[in-house]
Amino acid sequence: MKTVKLLAGILGIVIAVYILLISCYEAAWNVLTMSGHINGFIGILIAVLLLAGSIVRIGMRSAEDDAGSILSLVFFGIATALAFAMTPIYRYMYTWAVICLVMGIISVLAIMWKNSRAK
Q: In sequence order, what DSSP letters do the residues of 86-113 get, joined into one string?
């Protein structure tokens, strides 16, 4: 499971950097055009939460308890809720919400797998 956590964490970091680059561009465009949209800033927040959850997942992959998986699940859950909340306004955030949801599901599976092996 350590390898799965490592690969999922690296993939999460790569996706978070991609989302961060797109969102920084959008935020700068929104500020320069004074459009009043908040999609760039929400995207930055989602990217930071995804990045934090992925870093925690990598850093705590060999821990004895489930604290790392639970903390990453909280980060991914907040990012998922935020992205799904913005989906009616900005349709492309649905993809980001699904990515964060899949990362959260991987955290849940890691917790369940560790608990099933402990018995």
A: HTTT-TTHHHHHHHHHHHHHHHHHHHHH
Query: What is the 8-class DSSP label of residue 38?
Result: -
pTM (two decimals): 0.90
On whether the CB atoms of residues 89 and 100 are closer than 8 A, the answer is no
* Sequence-distant (≥ 6) Cβ neighbours of residue 54 within 8 angstroms: 8, 9, 10, 11, 12, 13, 16, 72, 103
Please report whether residue 118 resides in a domain. Answer: no
Q: Report angle CA 61, 68, 70 to the nearest 5 degrees.
A: 135
Q: Which pLDDT tens digit goes with each residue over 17-39?
A: 999 999 999 999 989 999 888 88
- Counted domains in the chain: 1
Domain that holds residue 24: 2-113
